């Protein structure tokens, strides 16, 4: 067996490391799986690592079908929404390697494509994002560790992965104790990632504070009790597996990086998973329960949930499929006409019971699109991005809510949520607010399967969810 083609799903910090290494092997066909606006952006801008731009191929899941190796390098919250893409990519001979955090991504993927395709693995890499892309130190990045879950451990596919990584700069090793290695990495994440994220400071806190060390040790004891109850003997891995990549005391691990960027974290995969396992096994988890709820509360704080300044803005709540909710605040001070129209339509329940009509991954989520039939929906209002200079100054970043339209008119009903920064939108559409909560649901929607559609009146090509995603109701709650 020889690996001649590799697809990477998730071009973030971990995916970028793999792209950096395998780009050293021109004989290997290397691609990133992406669709829609995200695919266009990758084709145009490439992947930036350590100040250099790499241009792997960009494939849809169908184009990547039957690739020799699929590397899954997603955030945990994105996994469920991409299982169909993983299934489409996996062919009869495809090997799937998950480099995600946590202890159950292999199990989840295996249920979709078959465990026979999955080679369990983990990665230890310390990286951070700057304006020019991801940065990491190749010398201090420890390694990708992989192996078969049971004998024979020196399998043909393990040898093929070893040959692939050789002479790439990627540090790697195979092991007979891959499950134990994965739990050791999990222990590092729980004990080192989480306490510093709550305190909001760098990793030097564990060296300089006995209190932070005590919290870390408490999380560690609980994790090790769960591992023991599950028959995981982490002592088999040796001392090297108990440490991460060398980092300076100023380093901020991934959970704190997410908090700094206003993103939701992977806490459900860390303490959330441990709390669930503890309940199943009858093991008390007080440190992890506190950590879970504290970081969840910090996410809510980042979302603006605790803004009690007395100048609260109107809040719109979108209910999706009857249970998930997204909240965005309105900015009537810069768009009084459009905001008033949205609030009025919400009060009249005009938005209720309508399927999401447009979804462009990496670009926009637009519940209403080119109605042109219902006079209650087909409303045009003054383009406030032209009449109000303050509106035109707003920079379109992820989570901005704006109205569809054109240079002469603005819709009074067709709002959309931006899924990424977009310079081409700046100053061209009326901004009405910003998402403050519900990012888990938005991230799920970003990864649902979409299909191409054509608006019959204009011939405009767009994408919509294959499976109906229903806006149950839209209400002003504050």
Explained architecture:
By secondary structure, this protein is an alpha+beta fold. It folds into three domains: 1-176, Rossmann fold (3-Layer(aba) Sandwich); 178-302, N-(1-d-carboxylethyl)-l-norvaline Dehydrogenase, domain 2 (Orthogonal Bundle), CATH 1.10.1040; 315-476, Cyclophilin-like (Cyclophilin), CATH 2.40.100. It is built from 15 helices and 24 strands. The strands form six sheets. Strands 13, 14, 15, 16, 17, 18, 19, 20, 21 and 24 form a ten-stranded antiparallel sheet that branches. It has a five-stranded parallel sheet with strand order 5-2-1-6-7, with helices on both faces. A hairpin with a 4-residue loop joins strand 19 (400-405) and strand 20 (410-418). Helix 6 (178-199) crosses helix 11 (286-302) and helix 10 packs antiparallel against helix 11 (286-302). The protein is globular and about 65 Å long. It starts with a strand and ends with a strand. The model has no long low-confidence stretch (mean pLDDT 90).
SSE-based structural type: alpha+beta
By CATH's scheme, which homologous superfamily of the largest domain applies? NAD(P)-binding Rossmann-like Domain
Rg, Cα atoms, Å: 24 Å
How many beta-strand elements? Answer: 24
CATH architecture descriptor of the largest domain: 3-Layer(aba) Sandwich
The helix tally amounts to 15
Q: Sheet with the most strands? A: 10 strands, antiparallel
Distance between the termini: 61 Å
């Amino acid at each position: 067996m020889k690996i001649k083609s590799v697809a990477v799903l998730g071009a973030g910090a971990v995916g970028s490391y793999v792209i950096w290494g395998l780009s050293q092997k021109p004989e290997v066909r290397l691609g990133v799986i992406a669709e829609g606006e995200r695919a266009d952006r990758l084709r145009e801008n490439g992947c930036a690592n350590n100040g250099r731009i790499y241009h792997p191929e960009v494939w849809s899941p169908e184009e990547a079908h039957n690739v020799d190796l699929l590397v899954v390098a997603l955030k945990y919250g994105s996994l469920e929404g991409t299982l169909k893409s993983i299934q489409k990519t996996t062919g009869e001979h495809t090997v799937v390697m998950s480099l995600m955090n946590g202890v159950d991504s292999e199990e989840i993927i295996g249920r979709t494509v078959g465990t026979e395709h999955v080679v369990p693995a983990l990665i230890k890499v310390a990286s951070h994002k700057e304006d020019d892309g991801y940065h990491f130190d190749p010398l201090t990045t420890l390694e990708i560790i992989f192996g078969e879950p049971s004998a024979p451990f020196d399998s043909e596919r393990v040898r093929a992965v070893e040959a692939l990584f050789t002479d790439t700069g990627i540090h790697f090793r195979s092991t007979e104790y891959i499950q134990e290695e994965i739990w050791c990495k999990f222990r590092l994440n729980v004990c080192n990632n989480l306490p510093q994220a709550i305190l909001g400071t760098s990793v030097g806190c564990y060296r300089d504070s006995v209190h932070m060390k005590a919290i870390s040790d408490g999380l560690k004891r609980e994790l090790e009790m769960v591992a023991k109850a599950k028959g995981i003997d982490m002592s088999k891995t040796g001392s090297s597996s108990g440490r991460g990549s060398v980092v300076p005391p100023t380093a901020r691990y991934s959970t704190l990086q997410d908090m700094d960027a206003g993103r939701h974290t992977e806490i459900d995969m860390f303490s959330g998973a441990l709390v669930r396992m503890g309940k199943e096994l009858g093991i008390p988890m007080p440190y992890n329960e506190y950590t879970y709820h504290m970081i969840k509360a910090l996410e809510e704080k980042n979302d603006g949930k605790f803004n009690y300044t007395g100048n609260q803005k109107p809040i719109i709540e979108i209910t999706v499929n009857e249970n998930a909710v997204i909240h965005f605040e309105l900015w009537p001070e810069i768009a009084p006409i459009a905001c008033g129209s949205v609030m009025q339509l919400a009060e009249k329940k005009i938005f209720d019971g309508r399927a999401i009509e447009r979804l462009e991954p990496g670009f926009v989520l637009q519940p209403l699109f080119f109605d042109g039939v219902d006079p209650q929906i087909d409303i045009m209002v003054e383009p406030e991005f032209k009449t109000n200079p303050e509106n035109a100054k707003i920079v379109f970043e992820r989570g901005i809510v704006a109205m569809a339209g054109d240079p002469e008119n603005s819709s009074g009903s067709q709002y959309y949520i931006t899924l990424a920064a977009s310079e081409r939108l700046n100053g061209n559409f009326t901004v009405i607010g910003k998402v403050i909560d519900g990012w888990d649901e938005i991230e799920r929607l970003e990864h649902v399967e979409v299909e191409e559609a054509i608006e019959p009146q204009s011939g405009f090509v767009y994408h919509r969810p294959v499976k109906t995603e229903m806006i149950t109701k839209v209400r002003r709650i504050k």
